[in-house]
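User: Sequence in, structure out. Go.
Assistant: Echoing your sequence, followed by the structure tokens.
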Amino acid sequence: MTYPEQLAALVSRNSALGEQVASLRNLEAILKWAPGAGIPFAGIDLVQQDEYSYDLYLPLPDSRWLVFGVS
């Protein structure tokens, strides 16, 4: 599934969150957005996959997780 397809699926399930996430294009933007979305930095987890790729886990206030693949 491509990122645009994943984003479309998120928008169909939760349009408000999907609209917020759609504008995020890099790690810096995600980290600037997170506190305003109620995501504390202490809850964020960055898991290294290989030399250049990471999975960024953000715990949403409603007990769900939002995950980004970053490189």
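User: And one key feature?
Assistant: Residues 3-13 form the longest helix (11 residues).
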